[in-house]
Amino acid sequence: MKVDRQEQDEARRERIARAAFELFARSSLDEISAQDIARAAYVSRTNLYRYFPSKVHMLLAHFEKAVQASRDDALERLRAGANPQLVWDRVTARMADLGVRYRHLVGAVGQAVLGAAPDQPGAAREGGLTRPGDGLRTALTLAALVQPVLLAMQTQGRLRPEANVQLLSVLLVDAFILALLHGGHRDQREVLRDWQERFSLLMHGALSPDTALRERG
């Protein structure tokens, strides 16, 4: 009985997050009210806040689910023996595409991820973060998407064996969010170009000597 209740709660939580994102995708967080989301998700406003304390939490929940799906796909390809560089290109291209398509939502996600810290309280306001470390889970989810690809590169000898893959993953996520937040982008190609420049700087010193020589060549 308890399992059934947990499954029902999780299904309702996913339904709310999906309904909220569909509304946000057509408009913005500020223009969508809690009542709009409750109506679209077929729940009461009271129930809405039982699952999510703010609209940003709803956005992050949907975002985390999409990132997890991308991670599962990347892991499956790596297990099947795919070239880590090709998997990497696929992951970053998808992230850039989503970032450009929903650029009006990037600010909210970026602020949560870049400002994530377990000992810092969020902004106590409607639509904002209300608990310490609210963006931390999203930041860790993104880092968990990047880390398996870097580990595969390290296993193949493309990264130095002493390179801290966990730290590098976090730095690369921050770099990508900053690339999306950059105001001058008009399309996916520009986002990827900006990110690639940041990526090259961050990867300097992490690549194995042979790989670095091939990259320069």
Automatic annotation (TrEMBL):
Residues 33-52 bind DNA. GO terms for molecular function: DNA-binding transcription factor activity; transcription cis-regulatory region binding. Keywords: DNA-binding, Transcription, Transcription regulation. The keyword Iron does not apply. Residues 10-70 form the HTH tetR-type domain. InterPro entries: DNA-bd_HTH_TetR-type_CS, Homeodomain-like_sf, HTH-type_TetR-like_transc_reg, HTH_TetR, TetR_C_44. It comes from the Bacteria. Pfam families: TetR_C_44, TetR_N. PANTHER family: HTH-TYPE TRANSCRIPTIONAL REGULATOR BETI, HTH-TYPE TRANSCRIPTIONAL REGULATOR RUTR. This is TetR family transcriptional regulator.
